[in-house]
Write the structure tokens for this entry.
Amino acid sequence: ISCSILGSESIVDFIKDKLKINVNETTDDKKFTLIEVECLGSCGKAPVMRINNTYYEDLTSEKVDSILNGLK
């Protein structure tokens, strides 16, 4: 609920647009797969995403953009 209230839907939409994939799809280069999960257990720092074993908290579109650009 915390992620939802704090804008996770807009974060997911941003990621979908940036990577040009939908939920449960993988980018053509096989670097990213977008999966929605019910909870990552970090309600106090929502919205949150996990890439491999690293958690990213207090997300905004700008933060996600910077994170994804750093991984490409």
User: Anything to note?
Assistant: The beta strands are 25-26, 33-34, 49-51, 54-56.
